[in-house]
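Lab notebook, bench 4. Still working through the backlog of constructs that have no structural model yet. Next entry is a single chain of 144 residues. Request: give me the structure tokens for it.
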Amino acid sequence: MNNKLVSIFSLLFFSQMLFASECIPKAHRSTGTHYKPVTEQKVDIGKGLIVKGRILGSDCKPLKHARVAHWQAGVNGRYTDRLRAYLFTDEQGYFKFETEWPNLSPPHIHFIVTIKGYNKLETQWIGEKRESEIKFNMVLEKVN
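Model written out:
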């Protein structure tokens, strides 16, 4: 095998190992006191903040068609039904929606992710400072 092929193989192997080390199931967090069932399917619920990421299994495989429910407070610091929605991941496990900044301290957005064959994940994204885009992955554990 020539040096170029060895280098390519090494890069692919080590990048796969690095990616695999990132597939640790997301910690569960409380749904909070403002939880109520999310019943409306919408992609965009506000303006100014893009939220995107990927839903993966603990084996690092993307979970297509996972249901991603989310709710939050708005720029006024209050929870409202217009900021509750769900969407489904695409064929590669990606999700994306637009919303407004969750004006709480700390800023946060609640999530419940469900898909057959995996444990339900109840969690939150928690930020530090105002941003225009946040990106993060959520990893689910297979049902035993």
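Notes after review: The chain has one domain: 25-140. Residues 3-21 form the longest helix (19 residues). Flag for follow-up if needed.
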